[in-house]
Amino acid sequence: MQTKAVEDYLKAIYELQAEGGKVSTTSLSERLSVAPASVTGMAKKLAKMKLVVHEPYQGVELTPAGEKIALEVIRHHRLVESYLAEALGVPWDKVHEEADQWEHVLSEEMEDLMDDKLGYPTSDPHGAPIPARDGTMPKADLRRLSELEAGETAVIAEVSDHDAELLRYLGELGIFPHVEVRVISSAPFEGPVTIRINGDEHALGREVAGYILVGSLR
Amino acid sequence: MQTKAVEDYLKAIYELQAEGGKVSTTSLSERLSVAPASVTGMAKKLAKMKLVVHEPYQGVELTPAGEKIALEVIRHHRLVESYLAEALGVPWDKVHEEADQWEHVLSEEMEDLMDDKLGYPTSDPHGAPIPARDGTMPKADLRRLSELEAGETAVIAEVSDHDAELLRYLGELGIFPHVEVRVISSAPFEGPVTIRINGDEHALGREVAGYILVGSLR
DNA sequence: ACCAAAAATTAGGCTTGCCTAAATCTAGAA
DNA sequence: TTCTAGATTTAGGCAAGCCTAATTTTTGGT
Ligand SMILES: [Mn+2]
Ligand SMILES: [Mn+2]
Ligand SMILES: [Mn+2]
Ligand SMILES: [Mn+2]
């Protein structure tokens, strides 16, 4: 059994890797709110444990063993988020913080019981895919809402859960997974994206729109 | 926010205190599976934090502040046990181990949600009282089953949850809180206690009978 | 009252993870 | 190609908790 710190590092490395290749010391340092020197220390330790490959000055990359653990932690996290939302009615902007703690103490038995109770969900309340029990991660083909052209219609697939306040705001606008959106206009020079959702129009900042992933209709 | 270790020590001190006055270094050392020297170290630390009074060579005693924290942890533990049993169908011999981990990560919000969902229970699956939100611990007047005379009838109130195997055994016999028992005979010289429960008779070792607390009928 | 065994504390160390400050490496601009 | 700013690592430390071995205190039996 790994420590909470090891699990958090592996999870962060997995997520950063998914957002683009090699993972730098700085990016991990920021993600985990820890000094860069601390990251170097842990990188060496994880390398010795064969959970990452650490090329000094060049970043880290998960080994298959490291990825396996990362996916287990992420599965715990997202199942817990789903369970809290579904069974206890916790609003979607509060589940992440709680799951960040529970993910480390959830036993495999409780994991299975929650999974059963929920009917084997494949995505969490923010639309993020839940890794399967065998460690398979469903991979969807999604675009950022910020990249759509005016006139395009799509379905919200996933919303970044890193910022609770943002989730609360988007929730008020009715921006949830499975909801249909139409881009009315997309201003140039990194300007706002105007969307129509549930019959209402809203203008979103370009950055915010980038946190929303969408899939094709149907 | 206290560390997990501090919470575990305070909880253990509370429980040992409830079983009889001053708490020795050795008793804590055994309860927590930690070397006596480690207990002394923590005792000094807790004393500095004003959570216990530590009289060197004489043991420790909770201060009101320490007791408050202990009761919060115990409330978390017992609510989680109740929730797991009720909502996820976890058998009573498995809930304790899980709750021992969850108790440290449960937020006050989740505590309240579970409490609501359960309908404000006053005792856990083993019959142990759940401290109220205000820190009040219901105190019942109970006797050990091992102390009853032949011919007496009583109601099971509480079963020690320290040994999962024992719980499984007692469960098979139908020994649960709220069930009626009658003592058929109580052998002398620390001999077995024979009881009738649900129409069946069973002989229990004296020590086992001591782990079962009973209350008066009605 | 004494003395030995048991209980508790002190002394010294170890691991995990974190930090700051100093050194070193890398990469992009000139 | 050089140089410097930024990224990274190294060096040295600290706090929490745990351990074993040595020492001190308490206590119960004689
Ligand atoms: Mn975490
Ligand atoms: Mn999520
Ligand atoms: Mn615990
Ligand atoms: Mn219990």
Features:
homodimer, 218 residues, alpha+beta, Arc Repressor Mutant, subunit A, SH3 type barrels, 6-stranded antiparallel β-sheet, 8 strands, binds manganese (II) ion, DNA-binding
Give structural notes.
Two copies of one chain form a homodimer. The first copy, chain A, is α+β, with helices and mostly antiparallel strands and about 220 residues long. Among the domains of chain A are: about 5-60, Arc Repressor Mutant, subunit A, CATH 1.10.10.10; about 145-215, Ferrous iron transport protein A (FeoA) (SH3 type barrels, Roll). In chain A, about 45% of the residues lie in helices and about 15% in strands. The first copy, chain A, has eight helices and eight strands. Chain A has helices at about 5-20, 25-30, 35-50, 65-90, 95-100, 110-120, 165-170, 205-210; strands at about 50-55, 60, 145, 155-160, 180-185, 195, 200-205, 210-215. In chain A, the strands form two sheets. A six-stranded antiparallel β-sheet of chain A has the order 3-8-4-5-6-7. A two-stranded antiparallel sheet of chain A has the order 1-2. In chain A, helix 1 (about 5-20) crosses helix 4 and helix 2 crosses helix 3. Chain A is globular, with a radius of gyration of 19 Å. The termini of chain A are far apart. The mean pLDDT of chain A is about 95. Chains A and B meet through helix 4, helix 5 and helix 6 of A and helix 4, helix 5 and helix 6 of B. One manganese (II) ion binds near residues 96, 126, 128 and 161 of chain A. Chain A binds a DNA duplex (30 and 30 nucleotides) through helix 3.
